Amino acid sequence: MKQWITQMKASPAAARVAPFFIFLVLTTAQGKIGVHSAYWLYLVKTILGGWMLWALRRDLAEMRWAMSWEAVLTGVAVFLIWVGLDPYYPSLSALQGALFSGGGAEAGQAAAASEQAQQWNPIAAFGQSPLLAGLFIGVRLIGSSLVVPPLEEVFYRSFLYRWIATPNFLSVRLGEWRLGPFLITSLIFGLAHYQWLAGILCGLAYQGLVCRKNRLGDAMTAHAITNFLLGAWVLYNGDWHFW
Fold first, then answer.
1. Backbone angles phi, psi at 103, to 5 degrees
2. Contacts by 97-103 with C-beta closer than 8 Å and gap 24+?
3. Is there a contact between 221 and 67 (Cβ–Cβ < 8 Å)?
4. Which of 82, 126, 179, 211 has the fewest CB atoms within 10 Å, i.e. the most exposed one?
């Protein structure tokens, strides 16, 4: 493991890309290797992601939390957009089902039903074991609020945005405005989420925050606030599809 981290540290690009890539691979594997693997792999990737970020913290100078009124406002606004827009457009899986399976609306409905059946719901999955259900709810809240924000912001806003501008990405300031990278990064970020439209708007908001503040920490804080509020919403209303 130490050698692994040493190799990441040797490359500024690897230090920003590898943790996200490993996290993404584990996310893709969730639910594929057993009935409850979605929950256990989330636990594994949260611990591993947190450890990688901690081990690389001195090599990622931009990965510093920052608090500002803009960060709080952006985090709350994105949460409201995420929840408020949800009934008015199809999820990514439903859209893919309608566009690529040839079945139109019927295929989209089938994809949405499949997505519904696979929703993250520890209470339904571990109803006979409240301790396990509580563990995975806690892990999800911690993972989405404290591990995902720095991991994704470092990849999307620190690496990808600047790399699209030029492969010599460290030559681009964090807050440097570039229209092409701004739009492309936000589009890629949005399409990585089931709620793709809200995700694109979310990416625009976080990237705009980085450009405005010329640092990554405010976007990390806004991202954390959005994800924590979404988690609270899920637990209060039972809207598990947001998880």
1. -100, 0
2. none
3. yes
4. 179
CA gap 64, 159 in Å, rounded: 15
172: left (phi over 0), alpha (psi -120 to 50) or beta: beta
Scanning the structure block, which residue is given the tokens 């690529």?
Answer: 100
Q: Of 40, 189, 39, whose CA–CA distance to 118 is shortest? A: 39
**pTM, full prediction:** 0.91
Cα–Cα distance measured from residue 13 to residue 24, given in angstroms and rounded to the nearest whole number:
16
Q: Which 8-state DSSP code applies to residue 146? A: I
pLDDT digits (tens, 9 = 90+) for 4-63: 788 888 899 999 999 999 999 999 999 888 889 999 999 999 999 999 999 999 999 999
Structure tokens that stand for 102 in this block: 């040839």
Q: Which residue ranges make up each domain of the chain?
A: 64-242
Token pair 């209470």 is found at 123
Of 123, 152, 122, the closest CA to residue 227 belongs to 152
d(CA 105, CA 94): 9
Residue from 168, 167, 208 nearest 185 by CA: 208
Give pLDDT tens digits for 214-232.
Answer: 999 999 999 999 999 999 9
